[in-house]
Amino acid sequence: MRLRGSGCEGGPVTPPVVVVAVALLRGRQLLAARRSAPSALAGGWELPGGKVEPGEREEDALVRECVEELGVEVRLGERVGGDWPLSPGRALRVWTGSVVEGEPAPLQDHDELRWLSWGDWESVGWLPADMPVVGRLRALVEEGQDVLPGATT
Q1: Cα 99 to Cα 109: distance, rounded to the nearest angstrom
Q2: Which of 44, 46, 81, 136 has its CA 20 to 30 A from that of 116?
Q3: Per 3-state DSSP, what percentage of the chain is helix, strand, and coil (rounded to 5)?
Q4: Is the CB of residue 121 less than 8 Å from the CB of residue 134?
């Protein structure tokens, strides 16, 4: 007798589309980027980043996205949490980072950038996917964790 619902039904599980983002820190300041596109996200604030291209390492995609969107070279630190949920079939993966060359400018997909001081991290309208990441990052800093090992700020 075979039990219904056992085994693998519905075919193979498709891995999520991975979107990467960076929490750029300068001391206790956090860089926030306001989306200008697509229209569904325009006006919302996020941590900068983007999609991982096929065959690309996640960390390499994040460094590339920072050059394309902000015009800066970054050094990545620690990963913040695991997979943060986005829309169905998409997952957000976040690292801390610091700018090592250049000054961030809104070159692509954003119309404004702000370095938020420690007390102002919640002062912008974060997109829903980014809100819990910012909260987790704040908790890590409050716990005294070194979120940018070896970085100079």
Answers
A1: 19
A2: 81
A3: 20, 35, 45
A4: yes
DSSP secondary-structure letter at 8? -
Sorting pLDDT into bands at 50, 70 and 90, what band is 15? confident
Tell me how crowded residue 25 is: count the other CB atoms within 10 A of its CB: 21
pLDDT for residue 136: 95
Question: SS in 3 state form for 67-136?
Answer: HHHHCCEEEEEEEEEEEEECCCCEEEEEEEEEEEECCCCCCCCEEEEEEECHHHCCCCCECCCCHHHHHH
Tokens of 115: 């370095």
Give the type of residue at 104.
P
Quick check: 131 pLDDT over 80? yes
- Work out whether the CA dihedral 147, 148, 152, 153 comes out positive or negative: negative
- Give the pair of three-digit tokens for residue 28: 């206790």
Expressed in angstroms, the distance from the first to the final Cα of the chain is 65
Q: What confidence score (pLDDT) does residue 87 get?
A: 85
Q: Comparing 50 with 6, which gets the higher pLDDT? A: 50
- Report CA 84 to chain centroid distance, whole Å: 9
Q: Which two structure tokens, joined as six digits, stand for 118?
A: 């420690």
pTM of the model: 0.86
